[in-house]
Amino acid sequence: MSLPRIAVDAMGGDEGVRVMVEGAAIARRRHKDFQFLLVGDEGRIKQALEHHPGMAGASEILHCEDVVGGDELPSRAIRRAKTTSMGLAVGAVKSGEAGAAVSAGNTGALMAMSKIALRTLPGIDRPALAALLPTLQEHDVVMLDLGANTEADARNLVQFAVMGAAYSRIVNGFEKPRVRLLNIGTEEIKGTDALRDAAARLSAATAREDSDLALEFDGFVESDKINRGETHVVVTDGFSGNIALKAIEGSARFVTDLLKQAFTSSLRSKIGFLVSRPATELLKHHLDPNNHNGAVFLGLNGVVVKSHGSATAGGVANAVAVAARLLENKLTERIAHDLAAMGEDALKENGRENGRQSTGKDSPDEAAA
Amino acid sequence: MSLPRIAVDAMGGDEGVRVMVEGAAIARRRHKDFQFLLVGDEGRIKQALEHHPGMAGASEILHCEDVVGGDELPSRAIRRAKTTSMGLAVGAVKSGEAGAAVSAGNTGALMAMSKIALRTLPGIDRPALAALLPTLQEHDVVMLDLGANTEADARNLVQFAVMGAAYSRIVNGFEKPRVRLLNIGTEEIKGTDALRDAAARLSAATAREDSDLALEFDGFVESDKINRGETHVVVTDGFSGNIALKAIEGSARFVTDLLKQAFTSSLRSKIGFLVSRPATELLKHHLDPNNHNGAVFLGLNGVVVKSHGSATAGGVANAVAVAARLLENKLTERIAHDLAAMGEDALKENGRENGRQSTGKDSPDEAAA
């Protein structure tokens, strides 16, 4: 069976059409069965396609001129879903014209549009944004939620664990990914009620003798261990996840900036830098977000992948490849299976309100972007 | 006027007596007016003092044999305050025998003991743990709370802003430190109710024409910008602060570990490494936590400084110096002044519960350690 085609929002991202089309073309050179629906300005897409003759038979263009702004409020963007390249790319997944959508546009808008168009899977209360982070090991670590929900109760966290494990199995190939909850200590008593409740539910569900769950639960992890690679899936609420993700990114950039300063501080260190360039290139390669590109909105009736706004064509190609793998490996069916295996106790309504308190309303604009 | 003496918990920390006494001795070589109350096993302290003849006239020993365990629950430690080196060091501040206490022991226990013995300052609801983090600039950035409170409402956050600014003024010398609230985006609508409410209070208080506040409020900051150095004080709840702090530490270690791997991957890169060693030493120096040692419990009737458990003697000396500067510059009086300048509106009770929900109880064991 051939792969369903992938809708690419050709207008999103810092570089727009050229990079998105080139990214799709690179992905297609690696996987000959990829087919695309390129959504955006037809003239500019055709121009970009001229450089990639291999794409001619593999892509259809869905013309539109409107693009969601980088700073556009999600609440405004969702009203423009029928006229913008992002809205139409997500809409193509809803209508079945495509199997997955990839966009490098405004994260908050993409999330809000995807939620409205694709709805959450049966049994999932809230979708979550998951991403891949580099580790000291060969494999990446999956972390979620990264900002789709500023709050999460125990039941949400259990659902995130199921979704993250499914993603890790497909992307990293672990049969039973090791899942931990992000906390401020590893002892049982640490953290919020929501975290302790979620830990108790996950422990009970994975300890059941008849458990058919394709994940292991290892308790809590602190944020300084995320990159060690011993944990395969780190589960957290969107506020803490976004704080951790950006702190990791900022700190890595901080250290490499310091390194640059240090390496240019004297002639001797400049020479040392030149001699050891292959080593620092290796570091750069390992840390380059393009090599870990492809954050995913999990928990929806469909696959939506968010590419970094500043991703290179190679990064976009990786995001496209992630979308294809999730399609091929039936992400949504895996999530449904594991939700069932988790059992009712783990997913019961919370006896009392837990975690960050609800804001009363559910504005799409509060989330991280 | 001579400086009040500093009580040093000589038994806490990974290395114990030798490092703590040596740290005090190094601090004293730099500041001849420092006086110490060394709390712990008299025999071992005397033995350590033999290597530091300059300390003879500058220190008194308060003998005790008990030590708080690294994993000891705060709820247990507080019942042993009268017999442990940590408890007696904090107790010396309460009784006035010392002006400040320095300990490298169990953070949660130190916090719980300090809260009980010293109580919070008038107008402060909850103390907070603040630390110094390196930046790309010359100065460190102050971040708080780092784990004393897993939750914080708008009023708590305003109080943290006042306490953090006072700390930054003393340690970094800024007249009006630039304060920001840690959030998952910089737009006004981002994040939790507590954050938005705190931002509104701080904006209003600093915008008042008659404002005598010695701080500027610059809105929100995302965690990837903490180390840039443009913000002087980063204010957050203890859960998010702990997540951000440890993510920064873990990511910096991750990058330097990768660098080590890269530098030993070939003969060429090994040679490059040797040639550029002065540069990498500079990096190591800048990132070394010993050079930013001295986390502080702010908001108490007294100065309590937490030294890293694994700090070297040089690191301990820095923690002692921080304690002395806070004493000398009358930290608690500065906080009281700024609280008054903040005005009633900024510190009013919250109309409704905000932020992370209360756990109902207030167990000292939930906090980060």
From TrEMBL, chains A, B:
Pfam entry (one)? FA_synthesis
List the GO biological process terms.
Answer: fatty acid biosynthetic process; phospholipid biosynthetic process
Q: Which Gene3D superfamilies match?
A: Isopropylmalate Dehydrogenase
Query: Which InterPro entries does its entry note?
Result: FA_synthesis, Phospholipid_synth_PlsX-like
Give the GO molecular function terms.
Answer: phosphate:acyl-[acyl carrier protein] acyltransferase activity
Q: Which residues form a coiled coil?
A: none
Entry EC number(s): 2.3.1.274
Look up the record and name the pathway of this protein: Lipid metabolism; phospholipid metabolism
Assigned keywords, A-Z? Acyltransferase, Cytoplasm, Lipid biosynthesis, Lipid metabolism, Phospholipid biosynthesis, Phospholipid metabolism, Transferase
Q: What is its main location?
A: cytoplasm
| Reaction equations catalysed | a fatty acyl-[ACP] + phosphate = an acyl phosphate + holo-[ACP]
- Compartment list: Cytoplasm
- Asked whether the UniProt record includes Ribonucleoprotein among its keywords, one would answer no
| One cellular-component annotation, GO | cytoplasm
Q: Where is the composition biased (Basic and acidic residues)?
A: 346-355
Xref: SUPFAM superfamilies = Isocitrate/Isopropylmalate dehydrogenase-like (SSF53659)
* EC primary class: transferase
Q: Which residues cross the membrane?
A: none
Which region ranges are annotated with the description Disordered?
346-369
What the record says about family reads: Belongs to the PlsX family.
Q: How does it assemble?
A: Homodimer. Probably interacts with PlsY.
List the PANTHER family.
Answer: FATTY ACID/PHOSPHOLIPID SYNTHESIS PROTEIN PLSX (PTHR30100), PHOSPHATE ACYLTRANSFERASE (PTHR30100:SF1)
Q: What is this protein called?
A: Phosphate acyltransferase
Name its species.
Answer: Erythrobacter litoralis
